[in-house]
Amino acid sequence: MDVHxxxxxxxxxxxxxxxxxxxxxxxxxxxxxxxNHMGIDKNSKSPLSKDFMYEAALHMGFDSIWxxxxxxxxxxxxxxxxxxxxxxxxDIKSYTEWAQYYDGEWYRDGVLKTPELLKEWISYxxxxxxxxxxxxxxxxxxxxxxxxxxxxxxxxGGSVAFATWAMxxxxxxxxxxxxxxxxxxxxxxxxxxxxxxxxxCLFEKGIDLVFICDDWALKGSTIYNPKHWNExxxxxxxxxxxxxxxxxxxxxxxxxxxxxxxxxxxxNAGIDGIDPLEYESGLRLKPLKEEFxxxxxxxxxxxxTYELTYGxxxxxxxxxxxxxxxxxxxxxxxxxxxxxxxGTCKYENVKAMIDTVKKYGSYPIG
Length: 366
What we know:
- By secondary structure, this protein is of the alpha/beta class.
- The protein is built from 15 helices and twelve strands.
- The protein has a five-stranded parallel beta sheet, sandwiched between helices.
- Strand 10, helix 13 and strand 11 form a beta-alpha-beta unit.
- The two termini are 20 Å apart.
């Protein structure tokens, strides 16, 4: 069975030949560790290419990995101006076309602090469009190239839940939901529209798996009140899932943190898989499988810190076997880390996770 069929069978809650594996991304220091094990880059001072991460995933034996492909054209109109008093009040130095302030690589705040700004940016977002067809033809070649090698490069792109709160900023989000609920819904709807158009460009090229990286949760709770999340996000996700299924494709959603309170809404929306079920946020496979495992594919949950960073090879093998026992029966489980493969992860532990799946993850699960 090839890797693509293995993943699709799991998403359909059927038992493939064995449990599939997924990596979100390899952080660069981990990619360098893999390169060293491959005998590459030991003395080189030049950085590895982005594509080397996919070669590293192949070397490690993963079945699938994210491929960030957010090809959205946002420059057809000039982004709206944010008043200087808003920027000064919230100490915002600059902002992107996504109405977000990044301090270096890290998200700091959003700028849509008033209903007037929300209205302006909703109109602006509704002018966005996918990039030209050449980009999606290019990704089709990447998809086919790695399928032949034995790796599914699942494209990620668009944003709904994350961008909705992040454009406003966590320091103002609850207020805007309470006072301007319909505008917040319209923002989510506008973000859903461009995400859908982006995904359609991929579906039209025969790509049948897509991810949205859409963080909406913290370690102990969701950023949204779950009731509000259901009213704001579920209608958009329902439209996206229906659209994916119309194209015989599967829609997978990512959020770090404790998403357990929103999994029933993901199921109601028709989402096919939820990743990464962050172990550090208290999520455990056995109760998740018992409650939700027949209705949504569970993805991830091997602790990237406790096990893959600070654990031993032996403890990683034990944790991987436990995950298989807790979640693999009947399909509907794809194993992987409960986050990115961190730069701190031990090569030996990640390899032990993959090798254990190949040794003990064949169906029927023993």
